[in-house]
Design a protein that fits this description.
- The chain is an alpha/beta fold and 255 residues long.
- It has a single domain (4-253), classed as Alpha-Beta Barrel (TIM Barrel), CATH 3.20.20.
- Helix content is 45%, strand content 16%.
- An eight-stranded parallel beta barrel has the order 1-2-3-4-5-6-7-8, surrounded by six helices.
- Strand 7 (210-213), helix 11 (218-225) and strand 8 form a beta-alpha-beta unit.
- Helix 1 (16-29) packs parallel to helix 12 (242-253) and helix 11 packs parallel to helix 12.
- The longest helix has 19 residues, at 182-200.
- The chain is globular, with a radius of gyration of 17 Å.
- The two termini are 13 Å apart.
- The protein binds 2-phosphoglycolic acid.
- 2-phosphoglycolic acid binds at residues 9, 169, 174-175, 213-216, 234-238.
Amino acid sequence: MRKKIVAGNWKMNLDLNEGAELVNDIFKGLPVLSEHKQVVIAPPYLHLTQTAAQLTGMIDVQLGAQNCYSESAGAFTGEVSAAMLKSAEVAFVIIGHSERREYFREDSAMLAKKVNQVLINDMKVIFCCGEPLEIRDAGTQNTYVETQINEGIFHLGEAQLQNVVIAYEPIWAIGTGRTATSAQAQDMHAHIRGVIAAKYGKDVAENMTILYGGSCKPSNAAELFACADVDGGLIGGASLKASEFLGIIEAMADL
Ligand code: PGA
């Protein structure tokens, strides 16, 4: 049975005190989750050791990072390696978020190297893909996303792929309040699963967790998560408020 995941990406928000408070508030309302359901919290790097300490002993909630560097160590001022993240008890690393691709010019070759760094260091990848509005309007989103997946993770072997989660995040839906309809999400998720199946076989594709991201909120999470190929969400804005994040976790818990 494939895992359902709700992951919170805080992006560049919250100072250390605010972060600690948010994690405490999430704990207070956290529902009991069955075996195949998981929450991930991905704060900024600076928070990681603090959040890791707060998560000690928790199985249902794991620590995530929002990025890592593509090289293993050395003279790369300002960067953080995957090995450092591992030593801070990070379990998941988000790679290829559209903000990284756009503002920091991360291309597919760099992302493939980052994916490798995460896997070499025994963590899991949350690999983001998704099309901009002009691609959606042109109706070529399937090929666009397929190319991102092909270039970012198709160099991996079958065993490595088991440590990869895909997050489909249409750029036009991120932080815009314009969510993809559940039909649009389901269509793309089914396409992605088909692309995985064509390369790695049906079993691997069936076990792949595919998250939806883009203006996911308590009011639309249940409908999105009810889609056959949507296995949870990667949550930005709504992960910054305990009540909203918990509402989305509840939608997963109820599945
Ligand atoms: P959003 O962001 O939930 O604020 O739209 C999603 C994301 O970028 O992961």
